[in-house]
Write a structure and sequence with these properties.
The protein is 0% helix and 49% strand.
Length: 196
């Protein structure tokens, strides 16, 4: 994600003169971001790089590693390009019988004949492990008015005496720790009479 983190693992396959694999702990790893040496992440056995994208604007980063045997006889190099992805928000219907219907995201416009409908929001590329992370701020709106829900799920009920009409549900999610991580979704809900 934008201003997100990545874990890069180097897995060299060095074989010594006796035909034995040389463990990573006996190899020297020299990591770079572009032309900049990453001294704190380099050294003996440093085959894992924990990378944090610190660019203020979304920018592709090239990470490279040079692996050298302790005697300097064997050298290998490799690189990876990391491209940050913009955060995305997907909406799903939560069925009272089957739970969240992750097989089909809600896009653009839906028809709702039920008296109430529950919608689950799923944030992608927000740099969190849990959709209800304390660092995520949810702002739901129905027809421009705030909906009382600070979580990733909202339940909407038809107004009494109203069977048909339209409603616009919108959501803005922002990461309160990483300010470049925010996204939104909008859904037009067509309310119809129940066919039951």
């Amino acid at each position: 994600p934008y201003s997100g983190a990545a874990k890069v693992v180097a897995t060299p396959n060095f074989i010594d003169l006796g035909g034995q694999s040389i463990p990573s702990s006996s190899l020297i790893f020299k990591w770079k971001e572009g032309n900049k040496n990453l001294e704190d992440s380099s050294g003996f056995g440093q085959n894992i790089l924990y990378y944090k994208n610190k660019n203020l604007l979304p920018k592709t980063s090239e990470l490279s590693v040079e692996v050298v045997s302790s005697d300097g006889e064997m050298i290998a190099r490799s690189y990876i390009t990391i491209e940050p992805r913009p955060p995305k928000v997907a909406l799903y219907k939560k069925d009272p019988l089957y739970g969240v219907l992750f097989n089909k995201s809600l896009l653009g416009e839906i028809i709702a004949s039920e008296q109430e409908i529950s919608i689950r929001a799923v944030p992608f590329f927000f740099g969190v492990d849990d959709a209800n992370s304390a660092s995520l701020k949810y702002e739901w709106n129905l027809n421009g008015e705030a909906v009382n829900s600070s979580r990733n799920e909202v339940t909407l009920r038809k107004p009494s005496g109203s069977n048909e009409g339209q409603a616009i549900l919108s959501l803005q999610i922002s990461n309160t720790i990483d300010y470049f991580q925010f996204g939104s979704a909008q859904l037009l809900i067509n309310l119809t009479s129940s066919t039951n």
